[in-house]
Amino acid sequence: MLNKVLNKIRRIIYDRWGSKKGHGCRVTPEEWDNQYLGGQWNKLKSENEKEHYEIIVDLCRKHEGNCILDLGCGDGALYGYIEKYLNKKYLYKGVDLSIEAIKLAKNQYVNVEFEEQDLEIYQPSGKVDIVVFNESLYYIKRPLVLLARLESYLNEKGCFIVSMCEYKGHDEIWRLLDTNYKCLSLDNMINSDGQSWRVSKYVVLST
Ligand SMILES: C[S@@+](CC[C@H](N)C(=O)[O-])C[C@H]1O[C@@H](n2cnc3c(N)ncnc32)[C@H](O)[C@@H]1O
Question: Domain 2-204 class?
Fold first, then answer.
């Protein structure tokens, strides 16, 4: 209960100030755990979300390299599409703050690497080709600081794939991404519920 109230207060502060500076809005691991246990994110596996995930999978398919790091992977919804649609052998690792989400992912996808970690302090164990932030970057306190830290873990032609739902508060994060990275692709889509997303692929400017 207290966590819910604190999260609401954080959200108000974020909408008024943080979002205008391109900051994200942190949600506690306990709140994420409750949301996963309550089935709140089951909707991400619905037919209505399919096209959105397919855009991300298609970007992975077209990218050179097969090592994918899915940051804020939740219960592994994206991995379900990777397994289904990518025929090449992909090396996938999913990382999430919520132990309950990670448990659900591990139960559903055996022999796949999922790890409970806080992205605010997470250090990958090696270099990767594709880092995906699917609806997770705006929960990071300083999204651009995290990306700058992760640059050194990208292989030479490595990329970031960022997906964020349409929300006024995300505009400044997009502006900072477009300013600090080279945007190689931009997809906008809307589902039958009227929910819209932007999905973009970025590489470091010198690439
Ligand atoms: C809207 S959900 C999206 C989940 C997933 N990308 C998917 O497609 O199903 C956001 C996810 O980001 C995770 N997250 C938020 N803050 C995080 C952090 N600091 N470190 C790691 N994961 C985080 C949450 O636990 C949650 O699973």
Answer: alpha beta
Taking only the tens of pLDDT, the chain with its 207 residues reads 777 788 788 888 888 888 889 999 999 999 999 999 999 999 998 899 999 999 999 999 999 999 999 999 999 999 999 999 987 789 999 999 999 999 999 999 999 999 999 999 999 999 999 999 999 999 999 999 999 999 999 999 999 999 999 988 899 999 999 999 999 999 999 999 899 999 999 999 986
Of all protein residues, the one whose alpha carbon is nearest to atom 14 of ligand 1 is 72
Q: Give the number of the atom of ligand 1 that is nearest the alpha carbon of residue 118.
A: 20
Which protein residue's CA is at the shortest distance from atom 16 of ligand 1? 139
Task: Give ligand 1 pocket residues (Cβ under 6 A).
Answer: 32, 44, 72-74, 77-78, 96-98, 101, 118-120, 134-136, 139-140
d(CA 105, CA 94): 9
Sequence-distant (≥ 6) Cβ neighbours of residue 63 within 8 angstroms: 129, 130, 157, 159, 201
C-alpha to C-alpha distance for 156 and 64, rounded to whole angstroms = 10
| Complete edge-to-edge strand list for the sheet that includes strand 196-204 | 113-116, 91-96, 67-71, 128-134, 154-165, 196-204, 181-190
What residue ranges do the domains of the chain occupy? 2-204
